[in-house]
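Figure 2 data, in text form.
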Amino acid sequence: MDMASPVAKQAAYQVQKSPEGASSTERIELAALSLYNEQQMEAFVMVRHYMAALSAAEETRLRRRIRNYLRFRKAVRTFQEEHLADLCQQKCFVSHTSACCGREGIITFFADVVLNVLVSTEKEIDALLAALQSDRGGPNCVYLTSAGCLWRLKPVICEMFLCEEARRHLAQGNGELARWWARLKRQEKYYTWPTRPVLFDMLESLFIEAGYESPLMYFHQSPGLLRLKSRRSSKAAKQSAVR
């Protein structure tokens, strides 16, 4: 991997994303974007820039570290397709009575962007960037199209969100579906709840160590998540003192 200093790496990214320094295929008209769209676009371009500098061995190691998370997401997708797809189609896309897929309504973690870039084709990422740049507003998420979400691997908060109607649906019968979903929610915390070392925090750290910064790096900026991480540090310090 390119071993330039963090400052140099950040400068290189700034050149790449500026209209004067960007290639015609990477030109970004930031002035015309909402703050939400600008931050999203910057994160995608940043991750692309980072990934382009990785050696084949480094990329292989990174992909190995996300395998368990991808298996978890596959289990979530299978559950939703089998038990919620028809309901979500009606409430979200047809009647618009669900709160999901609303404009700028759900947080995107920086790790969500990294993971999506890792599993997507260049064409799919180009489509996301084009949607952000050509956005004309409206009630729906910028990524929502008539064919569904443009993300190949949707942000985890989007994927794990259930409206009240969906929760009632899962609670019907003997409640087995609700218990199944609760197990998936607990599994989600293994990757996103930083009272222990978690993938989402690790992915942010990887980019920070390489000199990148983004407002989407909530695991290093959100007061709530930082408090959770401080508890982890305090617990580890106490355990070390006992030893």
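Caption note: The longest helix spans residues 223-242.
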